[in-house]
UniProtKB/TrEMBL annotation:
Keywords: ATP-binding, Nucleotide-binding. InterPro entries: ATPase_NBD, Heat_shock_70_CS, Hsp_70_fam. This is Heat shock protein 70. One of its GO terms (molecular function) is ATP-dependent protein folding chaperone. It comes from the Eukaryota. It comes from Verticillium longisporum.
């Protein structure tokens, strides 16, 4: 990634702000920081991905300075985070955060992959479970179908000579895909309810809901989240793929003294510890 950035910028990259899932523990954060050092980077700060996205949204949405509660719903390829922030002017205060470091788009791919494996075995009487190449080709096709189903009602999964000379073809509808992943989709609402509880806020107190991460393009995810908040419209004004990087870049600019615009001059980020410290009080 350092090399990609240097090619894009046309100059050497020595410092960086690196983002991590909000629910990463201290060991995971330190390992990420160590990886940056091994790559030759001076890691200025490790910040949470939904918090970075909130910075991008807060600076790019053209909002007024009025106080508002914003929920960041960040569902990516492998992790899921929810953060509830209070934003007023340039002050971003994280009220609560929750998530699952083992839930994301890859899990939805796997559900579809397992469905396809069973269909292939039923049709051909052959099991591809122990063939890495066949599984890799099928997973790639499943991921492509998943993306197609975000905009279309059905998709075709078609692979020539998938295993032992047998071709594979299957139609998958959006409804069937949603059925296969119903438990995972519904499970994303649990951290949403948790952050509301931790922040001691009612659903009606959340003014804006921001979607971040490629998996938020799935229509069923959007519908479930909107229904949870009693039909509230979801914010899609920022690019879900770029929001985290944009926020991290802003933070890097501030820490390195290169961000001098009026929008960033008073920016203050107040985050929370996402995991329990293990201390009980009576």
């Amino acid at each position: 990634m350092k090399e990609i950035a240097e090619v894009k910028l046309g100059k050497k990259v020595e410092k960086a702000v690196i983002t991590v899932p909000a629910y990463f523990n201290d060991n995971q954060r330190q390992a990420t920081k160590d990886a940056g050092a091994i790559a030759g980077l001076n890691v200025l700060r490790i910040i949470n991905e939904p918090t970075a996205a909130a910075i991008a949204y807060g600076l790019g949405a053209g909002k007024s300075n009025k106080e508002r509660n914003v929920l960041i719903y960040d569902l990516g390829g492998g992790t899921f985070d929810v953060s509830l922030l209070n934003i007023q002017g340039g002050v971003f205060t994280v009220k609560a955060t929750s998530g699952n470091t083992h839930l994301g788009g890859q899990d939805f791919d796997t559900s579809l992959l397992e469905h396809c494996k069973k269909d292939f075995q039923r049709k051909s009487k052959k099991d591809i479970s122990n063939d890495p190449r066949a599984l890799r080709r099928l997973r790639t096709a499943c991921e492509r179908a998943k993306r197609t189903l975000s905009s279309g009602a059905q998709a075709t999964i078609e692979i020539d000579s998938l295993f032992d000379g047998e071709d594979f073809q299957m139609q998958i509808t959006r409804a069937r895909f949603e059925e296969l992943n119903a438990k995972a989709f519904n499970g994303t609402l649990e951290p949403v309810a948790q952050v509301l509880k931790d922040a001691n806020l009612q659903k009606s107190a959340v003014e804006e809901i921001v979607l971040v991460g490629g998996s938020t393009r799935i229509p069923r995810i959007q519908k479930l989240l909107s229904e949870f908040f009693d039909g509230k419209k979801l914010e899609k004004s920022i690019n879900p793929d770029e929001a985290v990087a944009y926020g991290a870049a802003v933070q890097a600019g501030i820490l390195s003294g290169k961000a001098t615009s009026a929008e960033t001059a008073d920016l203050l980020l107040l985050d929370v510890c996402p995991l329990s410290l293990g201390v009980a009080m009576e």
